[in-house]
Amino acid sequence: MSERKQYKGYDLHIADEPRRDMPEFLREHGLMQRAQLTPLSTPANIEEELAGIRAQKIQTASSIFEKNRVPVRGALRAIVGYAFDEFNLPKSGGVDIGSGATGEMVEELLPRSVTQSSWVQLEANPSAVKENQRRHPNSRIVEGSYLNMGVSGLDIVTRTPLAWVNFSVEI
Questions:
Q1: Cα–chain-centroid distance for residue 77?
Q2: Whole-prediction pTM value?
C-alpha cells in the first residue's frame, strides 16, 4: 500500500512495492477502467534496445511526450522536488540518462536549488540530441547511453521509492 504525503500542494503517493501498488492506485482513482494497454515487444538485448532508441523519430519520442507532460508539469516538479528533499540528493553534478529532445528533467523539472549548469544530459538518439541542443544551446547534452558511463543507472533508480501524484487530466 502506498503512503500519502502532501508536498507543495500535491498529494504524493509513495509506494513500497510500485509494481503491486500501481494497479491498486489506478483502481482507487477510477483510472483503471480508462486505461488502454498496448502490448510491447521486449528487445532481445541492450544493443537491440539502443538501436530502436537511436532510430526513433523525435516526433514520436519527444513531441508526444512533451504534449502529454505540459498539463502535469507542476505535479512532476513536485515529485522531483520531493525526491531531492527526502533523500538529500546532491545539488550538482547530476546526469539525466535519456534526456530526449526536450531535456525535460534538467530544463523543466529540477528544483531551483539544483545547479542546473552542472548537470549533463545523456541521450542515445542523435536526432533528439540535435533538437535538445537547438532548444538549449547553453546546456551540456551528449550522445550516448548509461553503458558509456560504466555503471547501470537502473541500480540507482531502484533504490528510491516510486512516487506518483494524484491528479486528473481532461482527455
A1: 11
A2: 0.72
